[in-house]
């Protein structure tokens, strides 16, 4: 005996409800065609009894638009991207859309199979918080799927791009530390030339006539921040403050400094970047440059829905959130 469960169809729902498949379609699609309340109730009761699930692709074809968008993130383990996923999902929900997320950390096959799989899902469009390879872009463009970028350091040719002003945000962090009397300010972050946070740190110090402090390059991870933090602790006599280019890195750094007995902010002040909710619950609570994640997500989804996808680049201002991880420069330093 074949134990596999047969897929329930719209015809099954119509048969159980004692109505036509057209009436079932009107009810399930939210059509403005007149359907009596009694018939609507019979359809919904049949759907519930049979466990019927409408086919998303078929619905997209019948409505002339999809009910789903794709979202590509570099690493969903990073609290910043977890928050962005939540923001995109909330923005999509406001437009009656669902979100299919692709975690780029787990992909990157040479032939772009994962992107090809994503584009096969009858998507309204794709939002990417990650840089895409030429081959991945070709797959998306060949399928004529609208694409909007977020979380980029520069404009992406041919596509709308939304970004935080990373240079100005880095300046906020540095100027805050300078206002507290710090003049030996280190940088911890990625060494990629595309990442403009180190550049923003250098510019802000140069504009203040202050020499750049030590640089500790690390990957964007808790481990990367922790390992950089051990180096910071070993060279604590050379600095009084650290600007960490992400909250995730800053969290790992704080752990390393605690293990080495470094008082924060008594000996070393620390500023992060991202403004993730977790930053308020580190010890001490982390001063951070907050990115306008929800505003970017709302605008990106609204642009996809509007269909007006002319190439453009928009920078959003960041905001400094001061907490307990920063304080005045230690006396005598």
Written description of the protein model:
The protein is of the alpha/beta class and 333 residues long. The chain folds into 3 domains: 10-54, lambda repressor-like DNA-binding domains (434 Repressor (Amino-terminal Domain), Orthogonal Bundle); 68-164 and 293-315, Rossmann fold; 166-291, Rossmann fold, CATH 3.40.50. The protein is 41% helix and 16% strand. It has 12 helices and 12 strands. The protein has helices at 10-17, 21-29, 37-50, 56-63, 79-94, 113-119, 134-142, 166-179, 197-207, 222-234, 247-259, 293-306, and strands at 68-73, 98-103, 126-128, 147-150, 160-164, 185-189, 215-217, 241-244, 269-274, 287-290, 312-316, 319-321. The strands form 2 sheets. A 6-stranded parallel β-sheet has the order 2-1-3-4-5-11, with helices on both faces. Strands 7-6-8-9-10-12 form a 6-stranded mixed β-sheet, with helices on both faces. Strand 8 (241-244), helix 11 and strand 9 form a beta-alpha-beta unit. Helix 8 (166-179) packs across helix 9 (197-207) and helix 10 packs across helix 11 (247-259). The model has no long low-confidence stretch (mean pLDDT 90).
- Under CATH at level 1, the class of the largest domain stands as Alpha Beta
The CATH architecture of the largest domain can be named as: 3-Layer(aba) Sandwich
Instruction: Report the mean per-residue pLDDT as an integer.
Output: 90
Poorly predicted ranges = none
In CATH terms, what is the fold-level topology of the largest domain?
Rossmann fold
Count of helix runs:
12
Could you say how many structural domains there are in total? Answer: 3
CATH homologous superfamily of the largest domain? Response regulator
Our Rg estimate from Cα atoms comes to: 25 Å
Total beta strands: 12
Main β-sheet: number of strands, strand sense, barrel status?
6 strands, parallel
- Our estimate of the beta-strand percent is 15-25%
Along the chain, the helix and strand elements come as: HHHHEHEHEHEEHEHEHEHEEHEE
Structural class from helices and strands? alpha/beta
User: Helix content range of the residues, please?
Assistant: 40-55%
